Sequence to fold (289 residues):
Amino acid sequence: MTPAEATPSPTPVSPATPGRADPGGVRAVSRALAVLQAFTPERSTQTLSELVRTSGLPRTTVLRLVDTLVAEGMLQHGPDGRVGVGTRMIHWGAFAARAWAVPAATTDRMAALAAVTGETVSLYVRRGVARVVVAQSPSPHSLRHVVQVGDELPLWIGAAGAVLLSGEPAEALDDTLADVDATALPGTGGSRPTTPFSPAPVLPVDRDAVRARVEQARHDGWSVSHGTREPGNSGVAVLVPGRPPGRPVALALGGPTSRFSDDAVARFADELRRASSDLARTGLPPALD
Fold:
């Protein structure tokens, strides 16, 4: 394990079922997305068996979906028989890159925050019961917080999740916690595994504990967490001010708990508040307008 990997990687939340099940949804679409989601920058090609294991879908279903996605240009068969990303994804990737591009001034401000605090700076938005990293400036230290842009983490765990939920009225928070109950599984720290269709018993989340963290974040204007998602990992987060109702954005610092003493946390919260005010001025990705 390299120093940069000493902080554990995130426990993902499956994108296939991010919140309460939509009775009007199309199951085939969700399953096709589960197959596409199996590909990552580190796994740009996969065998059929790997796709079955990663997606959690039956082999015959994956076969049909792959054939359809290949015909549509979203995937392609390689000469070695492996399945890879198709040329049609270039369009979607370019479109997404433009829609979620962070203004240069905001990128610079996040880099400055990472330099002054020594910790990784991440920008989070909410998607269902997940919080998604949409921008990041890494810590200058080799031992640092390891989360990548595009990663989805549990909304109900961690400092960024608490501040994202802190702007919700009580009734909306109750609905969110009901959605969380439907996705939390035992042995995962309250987050879904990477195989959304694998059967497993449901373990309800401690709603009172989540409410307490959210209320504290609402009262303080910021939140701190120590080891709630991964042992040895800490975070501090604030909301970016001036956002419209229902569209919160969180600015967070993450790193090893050993560097998050009480004095450091207080300083980090002050630095985050100043930076978040600057981000409200320098701007966010166009997709958040």
